[in-house]
Design a protein that fits this description.
Layout: E1 7-11, H1 30-39, E2 44-46, H2 55-63, E3 68-71, E4 73-76, H3 83-99, E5 104-109, H4 131-150, E6 154-158, H5 168-177, E7 183-188, H6 189-194, H7 199-206, E8 210-215, E9 217-218, H8 220-227, H9 234-240, E10 243-244, H10 254-262, E11 267-271, H11 282-297
Catalytic activity: scyllo-inosose = 3D-3,5/4-trihydroxycyclohexane-1,2-dione + H2O
Pfam families: AP_endonuc_2
Organism: Eubacterium coprostanoligenes
């Protein structure tokens, strides 16, 4: 069982409205989203594109529902834009999250990512960093981590499909090249499974450097029968229903929960499952995830 005094449970708004494909869930309002999160029993949320951008406007909406912002995605462009431009954008993003009381900021290098490219097969055409790109990414992440630490926050890197940090070897290299006191890992069960990687050894190896956890499940029937043979893009795979909430797909979460328990993990665990809300009612799936997690972790 996970310690409820140390581990908090959140859910991402991407099940209600998809930031990369705004037509998915266009009908779902911001207030409906956060109200249903709270009603389903969650205590935290990440930030979606319908959330008010001003922290002073956003916070009262959350407070009245007993919700807290736990993290928000940051796209870095260290490999494609001027270095300082990304650093300054990160600082502004970090300041906003700090004002909202968040303790974690999650980043992904998007300079050459194909995750949003409908013309690219997500399994066949991922980018790989050159030595020069690895050097600039590591430098940038260390600097971002130092700034986050100055705010009392943890900087985490989200290993993600379609990016230069996707495989076990790339995660290993990222961890080797960055300062363990400044740069941490955002562990995502779904992205590892999608990449053909058993998430358990990765979690076990880096549990002491993991400061944020995404609980994402995968429907292997969709993956094996549609995504792989059709050489789908990442976004087409999402539309096809490759992801779902914990307990509804094929990822075995028990060993994941066991490792977190043994390591005395402290932080947020976040249900994140981008689906088409017209096919997977967000509130119903949030309730399903909440029930499964309660039964298997005690949270």
């Amino acid at each position: 069982m996970l310690n409820p005094n140390k581990v908090k449970l959140a859910i991402a708004p991407i099940g209600w409205t998809n930031d990369d494909m705004p037509d998915l869930g266009a009908e779902n309002t911001f207030e409906q989203c956060i109200s249903e999160m709270a009603l389903a029993g969650f205590k935290g949320s990440e930030i979606g594109n319908k959330y008010p951008s001003d922290p002073d406007v956003l916070k009262p909406y959350l407070d009245i529902r007993g919700l807290q912002i736990c993290n928000a995605w940051f796209s870095s462009y260290l490999t494609s834009k001027p270095y300082e431009e990304t650093i300054e954008a990160f600082k502004a993003h970090c300041d906003k999250l700090h004002k909202l009381g968040a303790k974690v900021i999650g980043a992904s290098e998007q300079g050459n990512s194909i995750q949003g490219d409908l013309t690219k097969s997500i399994l066949d055409e991922k980018p790989y960093y050159t030595d020069e790109e690895w050097a600039i990414v590591a430098k940038g992440f260390n600097e971002m981590g130092e700034y986050a630490r100055s705010k009392g926050m943890y900087f985490t890197v989200h290993h993600h499909m379609g990016t230069g940090v996707q495989t076990v070897e790339e995660i290993d290299k990222l961890m080797e090249l960055t300062d363990p006191e400044l740069v941490y890992l955002l562990f995502d069960s779904g992205h590892l499974t999608f990449a053909g990687i058993d998430p358990v050894p990765v979690l076990k190896k880096y549990v002491d450097r993991i400061k944020h956890v995404h609980l994402k499940d995968v429907r292997l029937d969709v993956y094996n029968n549609e995504v792989v043979p059709k050489h789908m893009s990442f976004l087409d795979a999402v539309r096809a229903g490759v992801f779902t909430v914990p307990g509804d797909g094929d990822v075995d979460f028990k060993p994941i929960f066991d490792i977190l328990e043994e390591a005395d993990y402290e932080g947020w665990v976040v249900v994140e499952a981008e689906q088409d809300p017209a096919k997977a009612n967000p509130f119903e799936y949030a309730v399903k995830a909440r029930k499964y997690i309660a039964e298997n972790t005690g949270l």
